[in-house]
Automatic annotation (TrEMBL), chain A:
It comes from the Bacteria. The keyword NADP does not apply. It comes from Acidisoma cellulosilyticum. GO terms for cellular component: plasma membrane. This is ABC transporter ATP-binding protein. Pfam families: ABC_tran, BCA_ABC_TP_C.
UniProtKB/TrEMBL annotation, chain B:
It comes from the Bacteria. Keywords: Cell membrane, Membrane, Transmembrane, Transmembrane helix. It is a multi-pass membrane protein. InterPro entries: ABC_transp_permease (IPR001851), LivM-like (IPR043428). The keyword Transmembrane helix applies. GO terms for molecular function: branched-chain amino acid transmembrane transporter activity. Signal peptide: none annotated. This is Branched-chain amino acid ABC transporter permease.
Amino acid sequence: MQTEESLLTDRPGLLAQPQAAELTAENVVVQFGGLAAISKVSLTVRRGDIFGLIGPNGAGKTTLVNCLTGFQAPTSGRVLLGGDATSGWSPDKFRKQGVARTFQAGRLFKEMTVLENVEVAAVGLGLTRRAAQLRAMALLDWVGLAPQANRIAGTLAYTDERRVGIARALILSPAFILLDEPAAGMSDAECEDLIEWVATIPDRFNCGVLLIEHNMRVIMGVCDRIHVLDGGRSLAEGTPAEIQENPAVMAAYLGMES
Amino acid sequence: MFIRTALRGLITPLLLILGVAVITFLGVLGGDQVQTSLTEMLIRMVVVVGMWIFVGNSGVISFGHVGFMCIGGYAAAWATVDPNWKSIMLTGLPDFLQNGQYPFPYAVIGGAVLAAVVAIVLGAAIMRLSGIAASIATFAFLMIVNSVYSNWDSVTGGTSSIIGIPTVVGPWVAFAFAAGAILLAYAFKSSRFGLMLRATREDEVAAKASAINVFRVRLAAFVLSAGVVGVGGALWAHFLGVLTADSFYLSLSFITLSMLVVGGLGSLTGAVVGVVVVTIVVEVLRALEGGIALGKATLSLPPGSQEIGLGLVLALIMIFRPSGLTRGREFRLPWLQSRAGVVVSNTAPATGE
């Protein structure tokens, strides 16, 4: 009998993936036609860290996440997982190698139950339905949505929807999880609730978190490092304290004068 | 408790099979005409349930499945027709078919296997396309099959029919296969592949991010689906006793697809209900076309009413029940519904770290 803890965080043998310590973008460029969505962006997310990615709308945050998860091939530059080149990997390969993500709009499987939404990712990773259900249930329990397990996902409140999306990405304990504005559209209180919970993920699952979030107060409080994008270029990277004091960031993004 | 759990898993297919059994039983009591329509309906049920395995779970409409029916039907005919007949009609068959004659079960298996093999080759190309492009490609496939089977004289008899196929399929044989198809389809839906495929139907992007290889799960369903439809073709051949390539073309594609849509693409129940409902509508209209005596006057609808009537039914469904008569839900008994969160017990020892 497996314990709940092991159901939550261990990685079954069939996922004998090399658990990479770093997810790295190296001089990544993405061009759509003549338009550069991202130019020469480099960053590294480490296991155990919460890495903030901020920038105004259109800065290229989502495009970068797409590059880091196989949804977008860089025009030039490389994405490395634990030092290995990932070129040509499909999104499902990224997930199998331990890089998971969520989406801005949630993108739940709306006609399926909450349990099936989480279960299916474990099934995609190779588990039987029964084993996947056990793990999905343990995870939903941790998320606090176990009572909703048999509800159709499309009927959930949007705050719960986001949690299911994160649970779906967390199942079988990926090495990295990339959260694309998980709190978009939430009130300040809801946002703080969610991010407080997100902050417990790295320790619990021994993974690295990349977090895109607009609420400055929240992100400054929770991140180990922050990377600022503006117009597809890297503006700055550092600890929250460094970012807060960076004049270029203040001028371009925070809009503060000092 | 165990029995309840087991029942809950199987209740949908068992209820469907029971319903179909009742219809079959009542139909068998009727005359020859009723029995013919009944057998036809049950064979179409095999085909439509087979189509549903792919179309229903993947959400990708296929216009090409009747092509697999054609392939299955001819393969079965090659196996069971008397070699003396074949030496007159078909001269280009491989030796084991040209000079041999095989029993009906072999013919059914042969039909399924040939259809599935063609589906592997075709699917390897088509399943890489996105939904609507894939649908159009399946239509092209239907046209290719029709073209090949209408013109490959030495193997298919070309535009002339293959005759002399043993007519061994009656209502109960067809029922047995329909029941089998229902069980298989439900097992697929409940399987790992079925779950992953339904996720790709809901949101392809999120499915990819959930480690699902969309191409692989679609291809698996496509091949299984083609195999079942191939069985349907074999049954059809051994029901009519005669095969022509043109009978597996647009009108049959239209009627099988409308059965799927009327019942509701989202559920197996929809596929089964759709077959029954559309069959009833078509039979009633066909009877009215033939004329019904009311006292001295004979009421009859003009020829073509069948097609128009079916079109009307389809249009009304699309307007009032866009997700079909069943709204994509499976048939269940309410008192066997599972409660939330019964899947895992919370009594597992929580030993902590």
